[in-house]
Amino acid sequence: MKLSDSQKRWGRRLVLVGAALVLLLLVNYSFREPRYQIVGWLRGETFFAGKPVSLWSVELHEYEALANSPARRSPSVLNTYLPFLFPNRLDTPNVLTATNGSLPMLIELLNDPDPRVRNAVCRRLIEFGPAARSAIPTLVEMLNHEDPSARRLAVSCLHHFDPKQCNAILLEKALTDPSSGTPEEVVHWLAGSADHSELARAALVEMTRHLDKDVRKSAIYHMVQVAPDRARPILLEWIRSTDKDRRWVSVHYVSRPISPNSPGAPVSPDTIPADKNLITLREALPILLGWLSERDDEWRKDTLKWLGEFGPEAKEAVPALLEILKNQNDPVYKAAWSAINEIDPDAARLLLPAGK
Predict the structure, then answer these.
(1) How far is Cα 313 from Cα 43, in angstroms, rounded to an integer?
(2) Residue 32: which H helix or E strand, with range?
(3) Tens place of pLDDT for every residue, the chain, 356 residues?
(4) Which of 52, 56, 269, 339 could form an SS bridge with 304, CB 3.0 to 4.6 Å?
(5) Comparing C-alpha atoms, which of 76, 77, 40 is closest to residue 55?
């Protein structure tokens, strides 16, 4: 079939366009480094080993893609990127050190959007040790990062540079910025300190005063685990307070005849281990009985439920429960009946007609 002149012209155009695209790709690949150098210079980027930080970021992304490909054993790939991502490998040159000018570039890469790059940078900064303390301001800024993994990474990195200063920075951040996700993360980090230092315990005490009830709850839970002697006075203060959130947390640490945990249940702030009951029933009972005279009926119902959980050990509460049972119109009448049935079944049987 013979092609028309118009078809020939379109064919030649397509060939030229294809050749131009191939040439453009070749030029882009061959001159990528000069292009990034020019753009990096215009943007005022940090340079290391002749490469701007943007090019380092791109090449690190490429290394991740190459890691599981046949090219992973390429000497150029290994020598350039493996020491960066895996600084403990002894069979590769140590191309990035604290003294060869790479530190500013690494600090700038802490802001890279790829978490893999941030992780690699933090590993290397930790390897540098005290020589990388100039990264602290950037790491402090990372505590505001929208990505929780970036915030956790910043905490870990700060801790390696100076645990004492790290505690101070994190505590100030948590107490002055209740809108961020940082406070609860700080609590978990403080509780996870291997040595449970006095500094970490003091910081946890501060966190129990936080404005956010969830942060307070998490802080006291971890304090009970690592420093029960410091947690007990706080719990006693909370159970006597007028704040119902603090009361609710503290009453879960009142000793019970049986642990609220079922065998194998996960430990959490809502499932308190039996050996962590820090308030005796003798201390708590007068306070709980006082709550029965408050106007909040829902709170009174909760109080009666807790009294019932204490079982026969709460027999001193029976007279107060009998007073409630004299008035069948009391909104908590049924709850009082249920509680007295748990505390003193014999008395409940005697009252059975009234209970019905």
Answers:
(1) 73
(2) helix 32-43
(3) 566 767 666 766 776 666 656 555 554 455 677 777 777 778 777 777 677 777 777 776 665 555 545 544 454 544 455 445 444 443 333 455 555 567 888 888 888 888 877 887 887 788 787 888 888 889 888 887 888 788 878 888 887 887 777 777 776 766 666 555 566 666 766 666 544 567 777 778 888 888 888 888 888 988 888 888 889 999 999 999 999 999 999 998 998 664 444 333 333 444 444 445 789 889 999 999 999 999 999 999 999 999 999 999 999 999 999 888 888 888 999 999 899 999 988 877 777 654 44
(4) 339
(5) 40
